[in-house]
UniProtKB/TrEMBL annotation:
GO terms for cellular component: plasma membrane; vacuolar proton-transporting V-type ATPase, V0 domain. It is found in: Membrane. The chain crosses the membrane at residues 407-431, 452-470, 548-568, 575-599, 640-665, 771-793. The keyword Oxidoreductase does not apply. Pfam families: V_ATPase_I. This is V-type proton ATPase subunit a. It comes from Triplophysa tibetana. Essential component of the vacuolar proton pump (V-ATPase), a multimeric enzyme that catalyzes the translocation of protons across the membranes. Required for assembly and activity of the V-ATPase. GO terms for molecular function: ATPase binding; proton-transporting ATPase activity, rotational mechanism. It comes from the Eukaryota. GO terms for biological process: vacuolar acidification. Belongs to the V-ATPase 116 kDa subunit family. It is a multi-pass membrane protein. Residues 92-126 form a coiled coil.
């Protein structure tokens, strides 16, 4: 990853018709160029290679059907060891025919399997119906049946002489309808039978022991076998229609027990035969799918590449002879040699008589931005590009973000123990990254953490460093070098006695007494402050001043980086009219505040610390132009502050009017200078610098030929006024914004201390024999809360605040982020619809 984006150039590719496909294929494998659309006015359905794209979409449809069948059978699709290249055009029809034959074969086998399963289910239902209805017919009374008998026939008196009922004398015959219905529909089915048939039916039903699949939907449901007895054909027709409305599965009812036994024997034989045939069909289907799964991944990649190649060919235009395709591409200048080599290889594979070649052409269009990165820097580059893609050849904040982002995070997350845990977790992901990359887990949250493993590693390492500076490890201090404060000196100098210890709950060590304080602690904060009552007040003052110092240095660094862009784009007037006023305004006010902080630390010792004035009061008096009543921090302070305020105030009109007036003079009073300047620029700079100069000439109101363009002074002045107001007010608000470093650092330390006091300390205070055993669950609770609250929640909060400081307070000082990202034609970057659907 460099400090600037790659130098780009616009090039024309002249591709022979016979080898264009192979040349584009080679470019897709290498990922060197970004193609431009030379047919913007032509719709997608009117382009030359529409039929080839439709053929690829048809193959994608077949592959989707194939992968769904493979997934349905729980067959794994192995990845190809060597990624296949795009198939040659002459082999496309062969792949298409192979896929179509496979689709026809699979569809026929699947239909046969479905038909066999349907027949088997029907026979199984018929068997259950015959078995259960036999109990209905052989029951001695209706109440002895397994299912309730909902209704009875109306009164049918039997004549004593003939022994016939009134329905028999009318010629009505007793009929039966039997079948199966879903359990949830039984109550409504009973109610409908009663209302429609007026009681001329008898319904008996019983639930089937096992769950059966529905013939139409395939869902597993509980079913009920029913038997309806009725008199007369008209009643039978009504019952038939009601059964159809409720989607009942009807089966013929045998007239006697002998017929029932014959049918059941026949059904057993047929079911056994169907199961054998179905088993063989399933085995054959699995064999076909296993064989297809071995090539499925290769087919998917080949079709994806082939479709992408034809999409690119649709972006090209044909010459007048239709023998050559012309394409325009953006390409890094450093990759032009590889581009020519790829075209030569494509021409060789396509057996072209005339080789394809590349021609670099000048352009006034703004090139896309390409910043090369690796697996370590890609995460930090993503943080920068989330704010905005940099302009072409603009200085990138990413190299500095490698250090400043994890450092600012660690200032808010400073804890040695938490930093070690974060470092170990990220280090494990780094060491096992090959395995995780190969598995490609589908959990989005896990992928987010895994993609940012190097960011987490840097944040963990910096947190270890700041934890050592804060001397904080799970809210406890480490006494590595021994405290620089001594209690013995207070007794030897007769300041304390045993009576003093007994009568005072709190005691103060006096550093003015010799040997009480021997000097600063070698690394970080002295561990004795962890025992002090005024520890929080001390850390408040320390971390607040530290946050202001870091913030001013960070913002000043961002302003200084703007000079790199001004020099590169040959905008030297901005150095004098923008950079210097901005830097003076920032340093004269807030740089002076940092100076007062360091001066107070160095000028006042423990003896005269009570006489030290308040920096905040002096800083406020500086803006109010007063301060005679307060004690000065150093001799001549009032004069220095007046001078700095005057310089800061004078830099504001320079920022506001300098650039608009200079551009106005350049367009109306500096014509001869402009022409000479344009001539020298064309003569002396390279082609790349010329393209960047043209872009920024347009900002200044100059055309690429040195001629004047329309210049609107009001528009330029308005933009500069907005920038000036934003910068001046932003210096105040941004400096205050860095106080979040102090606030989150204290919050993290206090949460860590509360968690230790409320959980771990309770377990350590247990003195019974069970105390050792109780330490295990107590430590488990402490570990879970530490990871979930302090590492995850607090870590995410510190990450977001560090992100905000970089985007708003740092990057807006020099980074515009309004460019267009370079998107090369690369097969490895193309999305796969089957992976998105979870089929691969």
């Amino acid at each position: 990853m460099g400090f600037r984006s790659e130098e780009m150039c616009l090039a024309q590719l002249f591709l022979q018709s016979g080898s264009a496909y192979d040349c584009i294929s080679e470019l897709g494998e290498m990922g060197l160029v970004e193609f431009r659309d030379l047919n913007p006015s032509v719709s997608a359905f009117q382009r030359r290679f529409v039929s080839e794209i439709k053929r690829c979409e048809e193959m994608e449809r077949i592959l989707g059907y194939l992968l769904r069948e493979i997934k349905k059978e729980n067959i794994a699709v192995p990845e190809a060891e060597d990624l296949p290249a795009a198939p040659a055009p002459k082999n496309v029809l062969e792949i298409m025919e192979q896929l179509q034959r496979l689709e026809v074969e699979l569809s026929e086998v699947a239909k046969n399997k479905e038909k066999l399963e349907r027949n088997l289910l029907e026979l199984t239902e018929y068997t259950h119906m015959l078995r259960i209805t036999r109990t209905f017919m052989h029951s001695r009374s209706r109440h002895e049946a397994l299912g309730p008998q909902y209704e009875e026939f109306p009164t049918l008196d039997t004549e004593s002489v003939t022994g016939c009922t009134s329905m028999q004398r009318l010629g009505a015959k007793l009929g039966f309808i039997s079948g199966l219905i879903q359990r949830v529909k039984v109550e409504a089915f009973e109610r409908m039978l009663w209302r429609v048939c007026k009681g001329y039916t008898i319904l008996s039903y019983a639930e089937v022991d096992e769950s059966l699949a529905d013939l139409d939907t395939g869902e597993i449901n509980k079913s009920v076998v029913f038997l309806i007895s009725f008199w007369g054909e008209q009643i039978g027709q009504k019952v038939q229609k009601i059964c159809d409305c409720y989607h009942c599965h009807l089966y013929p009812h045998p007239e006697n027990d002998e017929e029932r036994a014959d049918i059941m024997d026949s059904l057993r034989t047929r079911i056994q035969d169907l199961q054998n045939v179905l088993h063989r069909t399933e085995d054959y289907l699995k064999q076909v799918l296993h064989k297809a799964s071995e090539s499925a991944h290769s087919w998917v990649l080949q079709v994806k590449k082939m479709k992408a190649i034809y999409h690119i060919l649709n972006l090209c235009s044909f010459d007048v002879t239709n023998k050559c395709l012309i394409a325009e591409v953006w390409c890094p200048v450093s990759d032009l040699t590889n581009l020519r080599r790829a075209l030569e290889e494509g021409s060789r594979k396509g057996d072209a008589t005339v080789p394809s070649f590349v021609n670099r052409i000048p352009s006034n269009d703004t090139p896309p931005t390409l910043l090369r990165s690796n697996k370590f820097t890609s995460g930090f580059q993503s943080i920068v590009e989330a704010y905005g893609v940099g302009d072409y050849r603009e200085a990138s904040p990413a190299p500095y973000t490698l250090i400043t982002f994890p450092f600012l995070f660690a200032v808010m997350f400073g804890d040695l123990g938490h930093g070690v845990v974060m470092t170990l977790c990220s280090l494990w992901m780094v060491l096992t990254e090959k395995d995780h990359t190969r598995r490609r887990p589908g959990n989005e949250i896990w992928r987010t953490f895994f993609d940012g493993r190097y960011i987490m590693l840097m944040m963990g390492l910096f947190s270890i460093y700041t934890g050592l500076i804060y001397n904080d490890c799970f809210s406890k201090s480490l006494n590595i070098f021994g405290s620089s404060w001594s209690v013995n000196a207070m007794f030897t100098e007769q300041q304390w006695s045993n009576e003093t210890l007994q009568t005072n709950a709190l005691l103060t060590l006096d550093p003015n007494i010799s040997a009480v304080f021997s000097g600063p602690y070698p690394l970080g904060i002295d561990p004795i402050w962890n025992m002090a009552v005024n520890r929080l007040a001390f850390l408040n003052s320390y971390k607040m001043k530290m946050s202001v110092i870091i913030g001013v240095i960070h913002m000043s660094f961002g302003v200084v980086l703007s000079v790199i862009n001004y020099i590169h784009f040959r905008q030297k007037f901005k150095i004098y009219l923008l950079f210097l006023p901005e830097l003076l305004f920032l340093l004269c006010l807030f740089g002076y505040l940092v100076f007062m902080i360091f001066y107070k630390w160095l000028a006042f010792s423990a003896r005269d610390s009570r006489l030290a004035p308040s920096i905040l009061i002096h800083f406020i008096n500086m803006f109010l132009m007063q301060g005679n009543d307060s004690t000065p921090l150093y001799p001549g302070q009032m004069g220095v502050q007046m001078f700095l305020m005057v310089v800061a105030l004078l830099s504001v009109p320079v920022m506001l009017l300098g650039k608009p007036l200079y551009l106005y003079w350049l367009h109306h009073g500096g014509k001869s200078l402009r022409v000479h300047r344009g001539y020298e620029r064309v003569r002396r700079v390279s082609e790349e610098d010329l393209s960047t100069s043209i872009v920024h000439d347009e900002e200044e109101g100059l055309s690429d030929s040195g001629g004047p363009q329309e210049f609107d002074f009001g528009d330029v002045f308005l933009h500069q006024a907005i920038h000036t107001i934003e910068f001046c007010l932003g210096c105040i608000s941004n400096t205050a914004s860095y106080l979040r470093l102090w606030a989150l650092s204290l919050a993290h330390a206090q949460l860590s201390e509360v968690l230790w006091a409320m959980v771990m300390r309770l377990g350590l205070r247990m003195t019974s024999k069970l105390g050792v055993l109780l330490l295990v669950p107590v430590f488990g609770v402490f570990a879970v809360l530490t990871v979930s609250i302090l590492l995850v929640m607090e870590g995410l909060s510190a990450f977001l605040h560090a992100l905000r400081l970089h985007w708003v307070e740092f990057q807006n000082k020099f980074y515009s982020g309004t460019g267009v990202k370079f998107c090369p034609f690369d097969f490895s970057l193309l999305p796969c619809v089957f992976e998105q659907d979870g089929l691969l």
